[in-house]
Amino acid sequence: AIQLTQSPSSLSASVGDRVTITCRASQGISSALAWFQQRPGKPPKLLISDASTLESGVPSRFSGSGSGTDFTLTISSLQPEDCASYYCQQVNSVLLTFGGGTKVAIK
Amino acid sequence: EVQLVQSGAEVKRPGESLKISCKGSGYRFSRYWIDWVRQVPGKGLEWMGIIYPGDSDTRYSPSFQGHVTISVDKSTSTAYLQWSSLQASDTAMYFCARHESGEPAADWGQGTLVTVSS
């Protein structure tokens, strides 16, 4: 199965900071990568599909990039409501996998 | 409106069996894969497996193969996740989600909390 390594596992940043989360796949997956946001007690919410396509209604401060094995989720200006955990997921294989997650906190 | 409604929280003893459900509505149920995802309290998301209601094609993560069974009843637009013998380590929130081939899941159930304790 394709493994996804996400880093960092947690981070703390100030409101307005630029935040970057990376996701590395164990083999090439083209652009078949998604990013999810999960707040405590809630199901995950799809933010980005196909590595860089922003889902409808997702604020434009979120962006995704990458292809092959290396991917990035960027929050251009961190807001208090962005406190959550973020997960990458590959959909290249019929056996899907998630990254280990990144917990984002506000300083 | 697309909805995935999961069955309620369960409290079970080790060794007991359990079947939880996920009922889809607002779309053609047979045309979308249904995923099951586990989340142990305080931990990350773990993809367990999927089923395609159209032909009951089922795939499992190697980590869960042989420990759970995924099934579907097209007549009631309901997918199921079941255990024949629960362990304390099965204590977790379980989510169902739907997706199209090659696409991530945009629609999720509310989650079912399973607690296994003696």
Main attributes?
heterodimer, A: seven-stranded mixed β-sheet, four-stranded antiparallel β-sheet, 11 strands, 50% strand, B: 118 residues, mainly beta
Q: Would you write up a description of this structure?
A:
The complex is a heterodimer of chains A (107) and B (118). With 107 residues, chain A is mostly beta strands. Chain A is built from no helices and eleven strands. In chain A, strands 2, 4, 5, 6, 9, 10 and 11 form a seven-stranded mixed sheet that branches. By secondary structure, chain B is mainly β. Chain B has no helices and eleven strands. The model of chain B has no long low-confidence stretch (mean pLDDT 97). The A-B interface holds A 1, 32, 34, 36, 38, 43-46, 49, 55, 85, 87, 89, 91, 94-101 and B 35, 37, 44-47, 50, 59, 61-62, 95, 97, 99, 101-106, 108-111.
Major sheet summary line of chain A: 7 strands, mixed
What is the average per-residue confidence, as pLDDT of chain A, rounded to a whole number?
A: 97
Oligomer: heterodimer
Q: What's the pLDDT, averaged over the residues of chain B?
A: 97
Biggest interface, residues from each chain: A-B, 23 and 23 residues
Low-confidence stretches of chain B: none
What form of chain B results from the Cα inertia axes?
Answer: globular
Tally of alpha and pi helices of chain B: 0
| Distance linking N and C termini of chain B | 40 Å
Instruction: Give the helix tally of chain A.
Output: 0
What series of H and E elements makes up the topology of chain B?
EEEEEEEEEEE
Instruction: Kindly state the number of beta strands of chain B.
Output: 11
Largest sheet: number of strands, sense, barrel closure of chain B: 7 strands, mixed
User: In angstroms, what separates the terminal alpha carbons of chain A?
Assistant: 37 Å
Q: What's the SSE pattern of chain A? A: EEEEEEEEEEE
Structure summary, number of beta strands of chain A? 11
| Helical proportion of chain A, percent range | under 10%
Instruction: Output the structural class of chain B.
Output: mainly beta
Show unreliable segments of chain A: none
What proportion of the residues of chain B is helical, as a percent range?
Answer: under 10%
